[in-house]
Write a structure and sequence with these properties.
Elements: H1 2-20, H2 26-79, H3 85-107, H4 120-134, H5 138-144, H6 153-165, H7 170-181, H8 190-202, H9 206-217, H10 223-233, H11 247-250
Helix pairs in contact: 1-2, 2-3, 3-4, 4-5, 6-7, 6-8, 7-8, 8-9, 9-10
């Protein structure tokens, strides 16, 4: 944002100098001022993007390094199984937490550019919130979420999940869900619809969950949601399951996988979600 004000100030100064020094007519002074403003904005934008890319590349390298480390350990355990699966799981989780904590430290470097790039503070707050969510640091998530950009269905699902964790009234969940679903395009929101139906089912609203899944069928193709709709329609709510959504479902921390080893899939270690 600061670059815009500086850019406008310099462009106006240039136009005034050209006009007052009789170097150019008033109209051409304005034209050269606009040309300068565009060139300045493009140049500064390229410079800032290059600096930001270095930071984001560093974050990516940290997460990819964690991924390679997990893959190496899993390959090693195939030849020499760990003494305890539980200890192996805990070790993998410690490594992942360490990588996320390191990435969070790097994210702080982006704060230096907040004054120069519009909405960057929202982007960095969103990134911080994602990492804090993975670390289950929910107090920090609650502070960051109002400032984050909930622009994709995964983050929308996180918002709903946190509201559910805090025992938000069903009416508030419904209002937030309706707001989110009005933003997404056809084919999106499988996790959002599934998670909301799960919440309603947990609160005993089978009919409400069924209506959500019926509505979902008009918005997307999802074997998981379709199967669950059939279970509810045939009075089998105990068969409702979102395991078909994989890691994205378990990343909401609403349900533990029956087989915990499924959580530590190294292919997803470099994903924020």
């Amino acid at each position: 944002m600061l670059t815009i004000f500086i850019n406008l100030f310099l462009a106006v100064c240039l136009a005034c100098v050209l006009w007052m020094a009789h170097v150019a007519a008033p109209v051409w002074s304005v034209v050269w001022g606009v040309v300068f403003a565009v060139a300045f904005q493009v140049g500064v934008g390229l410079l800032l993007r290059r600096k930001m890319k270095r930071v984001t590349d560093e974050i990516q390298q940290i997460m990819m390094g964690a991924q390679r480390k997990m893959q190496a350990k899993m390959a090693q355990w195939q030849h020499r199984p760990p003494s305890s699966p539980k200890e192996a799981q805990q070790e993998m989780e410690r490594d992942q937490r360490a990588a996320i904590a390191q990435a969070l430290q790097v994210v702080e470097k982006l704060g230096a550019y907040n004054k120069w790039i519009p909405l960057l503070n929202k982007q960095t707050d969103t990134m911080r919130m994602q990492f804090c969510w993975q670390l289950k640091e929910f107090d920090k998530v609650d502070l960051l979420m109002p400032r984050a950009m909930l622009a994709d269905p995964m983050l929308m699902s996180v918002k709903l999940a946190r509201m559910y964790m805090k025992d938000a009234p069903t009416e508030e969940l419904a209002k937030q869900f309706k707001k989110f679903t009005s933003r997404i395009r056809y084919g999106q929101g499988e996790l959002l619809y599934g998670a909301y139906a799960w919440m309603l089912l947990k609160r005993g609203d089978v009919d409400g969950a069924l209506k959500v899944l019926i509505d979902a069928e008009t918005k997307m193709e999802s074997a998981t949601l379709k199967g669950n709709r059939a279970h509810l329609a045939n009075n089998r709510p105990n068969h409702f399951s979102l395991t078909g959504l994989g890691d994205s479902w378990y990343a909401l921390w609403l349900e533990e996988p029956k087989v915990r080893q499924q959580r530590m899939n190294p292919r997803h270690a470099n994903r924020y979600f």
